[in-house]
Write a structure and sequence with these properties.
Helices cover about 40% and strands about 10% of the residues. It is of the alpha/beta class and about 140 residues long. The chain starts with 6 loop residues before the first helix and ends with a helix.
């Protein structure tokens, strides 16, 4: 399996992980747009009772929101510290229906799935050409 991630970017997000849930931190824009992202997803596919995969979930802001509207969510990322922050937040907030794992999605995952919604942070992708399926 090919993993298409930039180790420096993973390390950078790891160093910022302790501030992930602070709405006044470097993640303020993410907190601000999260209601829009959740609303857009809900328009495409109401989440209650559905299973959702959040690829590149980081500290779990979107994963947590999807779980709170009734989805069973699996958040995956390659950066350990943000995942631990996401797990801690879910425990402290009492969010049910969310699980986090440190795993990758193969670059060719779209060819293996009937439906895959994956968002990625372009800054964390090492080879954008491969990420777009042109490897």
């Amino acid at each position: 399996m090919t993993i298409n991630a930039d180790p420096q970017e993973l390390a950078k997000f790891g160093e910022l992980a302790h501030r992930w849930w602070d709405p006044e931190s470097d993640f303020k824009p993410l907190h601000q747009i999260n209601p829009l992202r959740l609303g857009w997803i809900q328009q495409l596919c109401p989440l209650a009772g559905k299973r959702a995969l959040d690829v590149g979930c980081g500290g779990g802001i979107l994963s947590d929101s999807m779980a709170r509207v009734g989805a069973q969510v699996l958040g995956i990322d390659l950066s350990t510290k943000p995942l631990r922050v996401a797990e801690l937040h879910a425990m402290e907030a009492g969010t049910e229906g969310v699980e986090y794992r440190e795993i990758a999605v193969p670059v060719d995952a779209e060819s293996q799935c009937q439906g895959l919604y994956a968002r990625h942070r372009r800054s964390r992708v090492r080879d954008e050409h491969a990420a777009q399926g042109h490897a």
